[in-house]
Hints:
One of its GO terms (molecular function) is hydrolase activity. The chain is α/β, with parallel strands linked by helices. It folds into two domains: about 5-115 and about 190-259, Rossmann fold; about 120-175, no CATH class. It contains eleven helices and nine strands. The longest helix has 14 residues, at about 60-75.
Amino acid sequence: MLQLHFREMGQGSPLVILHGLFGTLDNWQTLARRWAEAGHRVIVADLRNHGRSPHAPEHTYALMSEDVLGLFDQLQLGPETTLLGHSMGGKVAMRFALEHPQHLGKLIVVDIAPRFSDMEHQDSVITGLNAVPLATLENRQQADDALAQHIRQVDTRQFLLKNLYRRDDNSFAWRPNLAVLTAGMAHVGEEITAAQPFLKPALFIRGGLSDYINADDKLHGIPALFPNSQVETVVDAGHWVHAEKPDEVFGLVKAFIGS
Length: 259
């Protein structure tokens, strides 16, 4: 169990937010502040091997769920807490809810289903990140140029470059544990299963332009594990629903968790 880096703001019923693969808590900072201003105690956390949380040689949902349990214990979060996760963070949130339902009041999952996720689409990202010549890098533009050889989408490169930082000796480094994530990518796609379903309220938010939650997920996969769930679609949004349509996501979450 690792002690996760987190940021906390606001007062009221607790909302814990978990980012996706290659993300950090900063990805949710703007929305977190809005929910805090709307009357919630909001905790945004960096998952293991990401952001400013510790690096470790293993990266599995079982371990990430235990890390989150440690965070709940550290902050003395009670059963009125809502847990929200996006993509990989959504799978962590699902696993946590199924393993520790007594710690949660509600669950929110953003654009991911419990089924196995094919991670082949991440190959270019992994290749691009590993191709950046950190030892000789002089500026961020050189990093972007190296990434562009493998990743054409400008917004994806900008998202990834948020993970690039300068060490005290002025050299560049990645915040994610790239070696472990590269080796363990198969674990990130793992299916989430459980012997018993999570019976409390759950909200799944999907991007209308994304295929991470499909019709079969809505009819079968999600209700099998989360029978008290609803699926809401944000029109004209892709996988990064919260970045593309923050007002819609803010409203859906606020209406679901109430005051």
